[in-house]
Write a structure and sequence with these properties.
single chain; about 210 residues; two-stranded antiparallel sheet; 9 helices
Length: about 210
């Protein structure tokens, strides 16, 4: 959900972000490393968002400011992130794979006690509720910003750069979620194509891939 909403935001700004997988993987690695060293899920999630933003900054610089091909750069960043995170893992831990501790959950009063699906839906880590909250927030943002940027006197290049950086943060946060809450461990190539799935879902939600 996080990576898909990020990709949708990027495409709304006119950037096809093929590097989403690399952003997720960078966020997963950095989020895991910080969470493991500091024993803090919050710091790990923040580091994951920062890791995704670092890859996104490369994407923005190369594609938006130097005007290089978005698809070629996106694939290159993904392959680079795969190789870099694998190398960094081996350098930091050799061939061992340390695990993270358990994560805290937040129960929604009354709703968590509903039969059948109460605990499954309403006893989750805080980041899950934040991810769900992104859906109406971004929907409102799209509805409130339909005016042409040039006509509104807003920098198109600056807006696209901000959109790509936000996409990276959301993708990195999604990667950090995978290692801290989903698996509790980082292994090479652990995103396993989830970034590309997010791209497909974002395009389907936009109606482009379904026409």
């Amino acid at each position: 959900m996080l990576a898909g909403r990020g990709e949708q935001l990027s495409e709304k700004a006119g950037v096809l972000n093929i590097g989403l997988e690399g952003m997720m993987l960078a966020g997963a690695w950095l989020g895991f490393l910080v969470a493991w060293r500091h024993d803090s899920m919050a710091l790990g999630l923040g580091a994951g968002a920062a890791g995704g933003m670092m890859v996104a900054a490369l994407m923005a610089g190369l594609c938006l400011w130097l005007r290089l091909n978005q698809i070629v750069i996106g694939i290159a960043l993904t392959l680079g992130a795969e190789g870099a995170t694998t190398l960094l893992l081996q350098m930091a831990f050799s061939h061992s794979y340390p695990r993270l501790g358990g994560v805290d959950t937040l129960s929604v009063p009354w709703l968590a006690n509903l039969p059948v699906f109460g605990k499954a839906l309403f006893v989750q880590p805080l980041v899950v509720y934040l991810a769900v909250g992104c859906v109406p927030l971004l929907a409102w943002l799209y509805h409130a910003s339909n005016a042409a940027l040039d006509a509104a006197g807003v920098s198109v290049q600056g807006t696209r750069t901000l959109a790509v950086l936000t996409t990276g943060a959301l993708a990195g946060l999604g990667g950090a979620y995978m290692v801290q809450i989903g698996a509790g461990i980082f292994v090479p190539f652990m995103t396993q194509g989830n970034g590309f799935i997010a791209i497909v879902l974002a395009r389907c939600c936009s109606g482009r891939a379904c026409r």
